[in-house]
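Run log, item B.
One chain of 188 residues. Sequence copied directly from the ordering sheet:
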Amino acid sequence: MANLYIITGPSGVGKSTISKKIAKSKSKSALIEGDYIYSQVIGGYVSAWKDGNHLDVFWDICLNTIESYLSYDYDVIFNYIVTPNIIKVIKERFKKYAIKFVVLITDEETILKRDSQRPVDCQMKERCIILLNNFKNRNYDKKHFLDSSNLSADETAYIIENQDKFLLWYKKRRKPNWSEPKLLDKKV
């Protein structure tokens, strides 16, 4: 049975990089980048943090896409800004699947450094710090946080794939069958 990975965190933390590494380590996987889906709207586009945004249709498309891939036995790796309320929806909708949920964070110096390595038109600069602090103060279960400040991308992906602390548990669940990652020969 397929598995679902939900990777969230502030802009510049490495969601896309880590998601791609996890997706590449699977024999049958789909990578869903929330930013790409949100930006598909052209006429009537409103930034996600502004009134009049199109988050309702965005989440409908994302959840249906995730469901389609899972139903065809693809491991799905999804990344975007995922709030605790959306996690509740995801838990309920995909309760028959093993789900790993990770909130990536870093220290301020690291996130600014990573942000500076992005294309100039994608850089958030000081806004990264604001978003980082917003994530740290949201009502997430702290066991889902992963500070990647001192970790390489390979190490971060390895930890996500191999630590059960990131699982969202249910009353009736099967033991997940997480495949061994092909990223690292060493244990972290």
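Observations after the first pass:
- The two ends are 26 Å apart (CA to CA).
- Residues 180-188 have pLDDT under 50 and may be disordered.
Flagged for discussion on Thursday.
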